[in-house]
Specification:
This protein is mainly beta and 186 residues long. It has one domain. The protein has one helix and 14 strands; from the N terminus they run αββββββββββββββ. The strands form two sheets. Strands 1, 3, 4, 6, 7, 11, 12 and 14 form an eight-stranded mixed beta sheet that branches. Strands 2, 5, 8, 9, 10 and 13 form a six-stranded mixed beta sheet that branches. Strand 8 and strand 9 form a beta hairpin. The radius of gyration is 17 Å and the shape is globular.
Length: 186
């Protein structure tokens, strides 16, 4: 028994919840997803935007519910990710880094598509004239986990970036059932 206990892997740490800045200049982040029934999506924030580490859960949604709007610290590089778990148990993600400006509102909009997902960052400060956030850099092109900022490419003029589904879906390291709470059977 003692040998079996010694071989057991330690329980992963749960993904921490994102905490919006309490002071200083901020920008708003609105999150939307277009996914079919059975698919769920999450939005993540990286505490270390340069290295894509320090994963924080901002919110989750499904075909009938979107995460609540949050705030981001303004005037500093920010990395966010749109992450879809498909009903076929595959997953897909699109990650961007950009510098939100104080007082502006941004939209991280993603969708589940036939063989993967798509996402974009939009400046929606003027809701009548949405426009792609041209300073947004795609950080995880196909096959790469987190491309350096200097090697990342700017979002296309259309503002759409897609990714292929990857492998079998599993909860992120440290993720727990609370990360998907309220999404199943809705």
């Amino acid at each position: 028994m003692l040998l079996l206990a010694a071989c057991a892997a330690p329980a992963p740490k749960p993904v921490q919840k994102y905490v919006a800045p309490a002071a200083g200049q901020t920008a708003k982040l609105v999150m939307r997803g277009a996914v079919p029934a059975g698919d769920v999506y999450s939005v993540y924030y990286y505490a270390d935007s340069e290295k894509c580490t320090g994963l924080r859960s901002v919110g989750a949604g499904n075909s009938t519910r979107n995460p609540l709007t949050t705030t981001l610290a303004a005037n500093q590089i920010t990395t966010v990710e749109f992450f879809v778990v498909k009903s076929a148990k595959t997953y897909c993600s699109v990650r961007y880094s950009f510098t939100p400006l104080a007082g502006k509102t941004y939209l991280l909009s993603g969708a589940s598509i036939d063989k993967g997902c798509t996402a974009r960052v939009m400046d929606m400060s003027d809701p009548e004239h949405l426009k792609p956030e041209l300073g947004a850099l795609r950080r995880n092109p196909t096959g790469l986990a987190c491309l350096s900022l200097s090697q990342s490419r700017a979002a296309s003029v259309a503002g759409h970036e897609s990714a292929q589904s990857s492998g079998e879906a599993v909860l992120r390291e440290g993720a727990g059932s609370e990360d998907l709470q309220g999404l199943i059977n809705q």
